[in-house]
Structures are given as structure tokens and as C-alpha cells.
Amino acid sequence: MYDVYEIRKQFPMLDGNKKMQGKPLVFLDNASTTLKPQCVIDATNRYYAEMTANSHRGDYDLCYFMDVEVAKAREAIAKFVNSEVNEVVFTSGDTEALNLVAYGYALKYLKEGDGILISEAEHASNSLPWFRIAELTKCSIYFINTDGRITVGQVEKSLNKHPNIKLVSIAHVGNVLGYRVDVKAVAKLCHRHNALICIDGAQSVPHLKTDFKDLDIDFLTFSAHKMCGPTGIGALVAKEKLLNDMDPFITGGGMNVSFKNDGTYLLLEAPAKFEAGTLNLAGIMGFRAAVEFLSSIGMENIEEHEKELHAYLLDKMGNNEDVIIYNKDNDGSILTFNKKGVFAQDEATLLNSKGIAVRSGQHCAKMIDRLLGTPATVRMSTYLYTTKEEIDVFVENLLNGGDILDAYFND
Length: 411
Ligand code: PMP
Description:
Helix content: 25-40%
Strand order of the largest sheet: 4-10-9-8-7-5-6
Bound molecules: 4'-deoxy-4'-aminopyridoxal-5'-phosphate
CATH topology of the largest domain: Aspartate Aminotransferase, domain 2
CATH superfamily of the largest domain: Type I PLP-dependent aspartate aminotransferase-like (Major domain)
Number of domains: 2
CATH architecture of the largest domain: 3-Layer(aba) Sandwich
CATH class of the largest domain: Alpha Beta
Structural class: alpha/beta
Radius of gyration: 22 Å
């Protein structure tokens, strides 16, 4: 394990000076985005202060240095998720990576009569791209019959019922309930049914050791900002053969070999053929710093820390009758709840008045309300730097923090 208080010293946002509503910040919205350690801020700044130049576009030293930085970052990300280096495509984030699979792969290969399998617990970014593909190709969307926790058996039932399914796209860890899917078993099953599997890793790659090769999945998507990295950068990791078969969905500079006035063109090989335009170079440098930072702590240690916090949190909450918890039995960093008789947004506003950042609403998963039987929930989510003291402040304010009027008239 690691010393969480030592780790916190590396995060400027956690230096004790940051206040919300005049109270010390208690940041419990890590499923939305995460705070940045100084090494990530420094790496990002280094691009602007010391290294500004484009990559792949010049013959002078600074351009060459940037090429080296991009290559090193790609290597670091490949190492982090155990893929080949040329299986890593830089995208603007998880959303763009999922859209790249949708428009680059599914639009090209799926047709009327084919099926895509998702679940009602998926984030908008892992739902709407498939809805668009269904509109464009006339293929069908099917939903895994689940109560929110996706099991291998449920996926198998769907695959048996709809042998036309060609692609399964699910989150490894859901962003509302935080349940973890047995991805390795599901991938095996998909391949047995001749379907590809795309894993939305937005909520898993930051929290669990992810082994692309061992899971034997076809596509993996994630965002740097949810794992201590900068915003505006993320990755699609995909099997080399699939990348070679896929088309880019944006085209332009930096991804072609040649083009002529007869409309013909030749593209670079993957991953470059998917990276049109100037890359987010500062973001790429920060992304590398983020994965190296996480690796230096150890993903197993981060997972262990979050598990310990989860147990501590549930113990502190006790069996309080005023709070409905929707995912007591989840495996990690997300607790989703409502206070009886209190609208979720009111509860989040009240907690904000105490300096506590949580998220309320549907959390971009707008089909899950049917599974939960409630239109909105409050979600608190921890990360590697969350302390038991912060959990204490959260629980105390949740259980004894007064009501919504305090947010406006008290303190
Ligand atoms: N999928 C899941 C499961 C998520 O939690 C999120 C972010 N909330 C996304 C996709 C989209 O990520 P981004 O906004 O970073 O592209």
C-alpha cells in the first residue's frame, strides 16, 4: 500500500487552500474527472514553455524532439495497458475513441440484418454512436437484459437469441453503479459467437490493472482526464489487424502519404492514419506523465485503496434508513444513492454548500433510470488520493447535514 497523505502533497488542488463555498474542498466526483498531480501539470507545461513545435512536420530539432515525445508517450500508454505500441491511437478522449470504432469499423462492416449489443447502463458515449450507426446502416441495436450488473450469462443469452450480433460494446466498469464486468469471459464468449468486443474503459483503466492482451478484447477506449491526466486526450487501443481494416473518420494533414487532383490518396499506416491534424501535444506529454505516475503507485495498490475506502464508507453509513443505496455490493470507487424524500440535485447542492463535490442526475446514462426505478441519483466517487477523513466529512454531512434550505440560508 502507499501513504495517501504523501501522495496528496503532489496535488496542488489538495494543498488545503482550495475552498468551495468557503469550506475545504472534499472532491468526491472522480468518476467525472480527476485532479492532477504536479508531474502531469509540469509535463503539460513543458510543451508550452520548452518544447513548442509541431510533430511530423519539420526538419528542425524541436520537431524531432516532439516526434520522440509522441513516440515515448505511445510506448508508455501501450505498456500501461499491455498492448503493442502501434495498437495505440491518440484521440481527444474516450468519446472520440468510441466514435472512431463506430464510424471507422462498424459503419464500414455492419449492414442491415446485423446487430450491435449494448446495455441500458451504458454512458451516452457508448450508446449514441451505435444509435447513429444503426440509423446509417439499418443494423439493429439489442440490449443485454440486466438489472445494472452485467453477467456473462446475460450476455450469452443475448448472443444466443440474436446470432446476428457482430459487435458487443459495454463498459468494463459502469459509470453509474460502478459494477465490474468479467471482461475476459465475455470476450471469449463474443469471439465464440463471431462477434467483436469493444470495452469502454473510461471507468476501469484509471482504477484497475488493465491487460489488453490478456483480456483478448478487440477495442479498448479511455480518457486521460479520468486518470490524473489532462483533458482533451485519450486513446483507442485496438488489435492491429482491425486498425488496418478500419477507415479513419476524420482526414487531413499528418495522416496521408500523398493525394492528387484526380481525387486519389494514400494514407499512412495505423495508428497514424487515424490521427489527422495537429495532435494535442501538450496533452500527450501530460498523458504519459499520468500513466507513469499511476504505475509508480501501482494499479493493484490503487484498487486496494479504493476497496478499503468503500468498505469504510459502507461501515460508516451503517444501516441508515434515510439513505437508499443502489450499489452496496459494487467492487470499487462509486457509491450511488438517494436520501429518502430528497431530490438528488438538492442533496448535491446541500453537499456543495459544505465544500463537498458530488454528482447528481443521470450521469449521462439516460436509459438506466428504468433499471433503478428512479429518475435521478447522487453519485460519490473516490480515487487514489481520497482519505478516510474525507469520507467522514461526507457521511457526517449526508446523514446530519441539515436540509436543502441550509445550502441557501445557513453558514
Ligand atoms: N464512458 C463512460 C463509462 C464514462 O464514464 C465517460 C465519462 N463520464 C465516458 C464514456 C465519456 O468520457 P469522455 O467524456 O472523457 O469522453
